[in-house]
């Protein structure tokens, strides 16, 4: 398949045409300066180890990149501080910052195809998905621009002869640490509100998918974002990420990733008494009642777990089916899962694309083997697809397991792959007890035609997001958060921008009354 796209300097390139992927991807990114990271407004070769970027559809190395080092973190943070304070970003009027964000959103839109191809090459995801992610990232920049411009501080009810104001200010330099599964969307979700709020951002993309964040930095630069406000430092979490979290001048960390990493970061944040937002893992229940619209439920359950090859924090990986329809529903679900089309993300017919890397695929396969050894029945999948076209990539068949109860490891641990477990339930009480028996609380899907029942279950299941007769639909204007080990704090929504600001209260005297030691009223309210 050929994709003609315009490179950074306007020259058209074709992937699969006269250029190899190896030539094309860095060229798509930034013309002739490919092995560069973005440190404090300067593009330069990183001082860290070489990252080899592998296309998970083919197993080919398509680009190499020198990672950042902890020393780069300090340079980036200092540049960020200068850009915020001396450079005046923090003091700029919200509508002025919004204008830059609108331009970034427009450029992301204009370069959506380039971003999508780059992300599909780096992560394996289908082009239809990466196109949607690019469009949503553009929307995120515009939404946060609008939010910044229209946010209001409050004049609070006075308790004395003074004017009381609740105002908000930028924090300074924010660290954004992201996973590999949906780079452009998770980047935008952090970078847009943090910049809109008047901060600088040091982004630490993952080793498995660093390129799209670097391309986003190019677009931010082109949009006129002042130098130093965004740095992009790809590299290992244990060195570059750790240095970012522990840096004394980093005022906040916004993290998306696994729960184990998130817990370690929360400890580091506690040492600094630093706010941290954590968007972590999940093991989300998808619930099918006996009165559900069967066609919709089948399509929703399949999409909920197998889109993105299950590499989604909100994947509906525990499928609870009411016992009286369990047999028939599961039989049809398995039959449809078997006919899902597995293939490269560049093929428009593909539904289940490769996983991000062979190492990750092998980890998922090992979890399925452990479940099998613990007594699970593999109803479909549970193996690498057969065929020459799958040999070099990171493919895995859509897999459905049964025959274990909800306390089994495979029901309690996040797999982050195309693996669902089907579980029967008897009634609402049984269902709610099973669904809530999990350390996670990220998402939940409910399929029923009884809206009162849907409401009861939506209220009873512990989850940050509940979908009723739909699944995996998102809107930047609706807050997103996880409960318990799925996270801490909220992203998205109008107030998402506030989590990148410090709140400051201001009292302005209006009457000139003496304070208590100067003969005033000593019974006045409010000594802390
Ligand atoms: P991960 O936790 O291994 O890595 C996430 C990021 O943290 C990477 O950039 C990594 O380099 C960095 N990191 C790792 N150790 C670090 C350390 N000690 N200090 C600082 N940074 C460190 O997760 P992953 O495998 O990249 O992503 C998959 C996980 O992300 C899954 O658990 C998934 O559920 C979760 N996720 C959650 C959401 C959400 O919104 N809740 C969204 C997407 C993915």
Q: How does this model look, in words?
A:
This protein starts with a strand and ends in a 19-residue tail after the last strand. The model is unreliable at 1-23 (pLDDT under 50). The strands form eight sheets. It has a seven-stranded mixed beta sheet, with helices on both faces. Strand 14, helix 10 (294-306) and strand 15 form a beta-alpha-beta unit. It is globular and about 80 Å long. 51% of the residues are buried. It has 528 residues and is of the alpha/beta class. Helix content is 38%, strand content 22%. It is built from 16 helices and 26 strands. The longest helix is centred in the first third of the chain and has 24 residues, at 127-150. The chain binds nicotinamide-adenine-dinucleotide. Keywords: Oxidoreductase.
List keywords for this structure.
seven-stranded mixed β-sheet; six-stranded mixed β-sheet; 2 domains; 22% strand; Aldehyde Dehydrogenase, Chain A, domain 2; disordered N terminus; alpha/beta; Aldehyde Dehydrogenase, Chain A, domain 1; single chain; globular; 26 strands; 528 residues; binds nicotinamide-adenine-dinucleotide
